[in-house]
Amino acid sequence: MIREIHHVGLAVRSIDSVAAFIEEVFGARLVPGYAMETREFVSRMVKAGQNHFELLEPRGNGGLIERFLESRGEGIHHVSLRVEDVEEVLRVCEARGMTLIGRRFIHPKSAYGVLIELMGKDELTDL
Question: How far apart, in whole angstroms, are the C-alpha atoms of residue 117 and residue 35?
Answer without folding.
Answer: 18
